[in-house]
Design brief:
The strands form two sheets. The chain has a six-stranded antiparallel β-barrel with strand order 1-2-7-6-3-8. It has a two-stranded antiparallel ribbon with strand order 4-5. A hairpin with a 2-residue loop joins strand 6 and strand 7. By secondary structure, the protein is an alpha+beta fold. It is built from two helices and eight strands; from the N terminus they run ααββββββββ.
Length: 153
């Protein structure tokens, strides 16, 4: 190996790793809770909460209990879910699953099928019972993991 090639190989070996690789290693989600709903199948669920979705329970995991501090009935929240039945290999869809619409990239839709299937659900807290929040309306199906909850500004 020539001296030039050895220097080039050393530079590559000592170069810092790209930020994407470092960020991906540190990136992890864990559910803060789960939705308990009368909706049990994706097929029968409304597409949006405002389209006839029921109220449901959000059961917070015990390790996240302190995050409920000052949450009360009447609060408006955004519940962020992991749409666990969403397909992650879909990049284009017909909006509202209607082929009469033009094909769109999933980033231009609210489709549950997307590379990272996060759901955003604006809800109102109806009642609080310990680590359980009665919220609604919410179109998430029973067992949907909740990855975060944020207050509406």
């Amino acid at each position: 190996m020539s001296a030039r090639k050895r220097v080039s190989a050393r530079k590559r070996a000592s170069a810092p790793k790209p930020r994407r690789a470092t960020a991906a290693k540190a990136f992890a989600l864990r559910p803060v809770g789960f939705i308990r709903s009368t909706l049990t199948e994706r097929k029968g669920a409304p597409r949006q909460g405002s389209e006839g979705a029921p109220d449901a329970w959000l059961e917070i995991e015990p390790w996240a209990a302190d995050a409920l501090f000052r949450i009360k009935a009447g609060d408006e929240l955004i519940v962020i879910t992991w749409l666990h039945q969403g397909r992650r290999d879909v990049f284009k869809v017909y909006p509202r699953n209607d082929p009469r619409h033009r094909l769109h990239g999933v980033f231009a839709t609210r489709s549950p099928d997307r590379p990272n299937p996060l759901g955003l659900h604006p809800v109102t807290v109806r009642r609080r019972a310990g680590l359980r929040l009665r919220i609604g309306p919410i179109e998430a199906i029973d067992g949907t993991p909740v990855v975060d909850v944020k207050s509406v500004l």
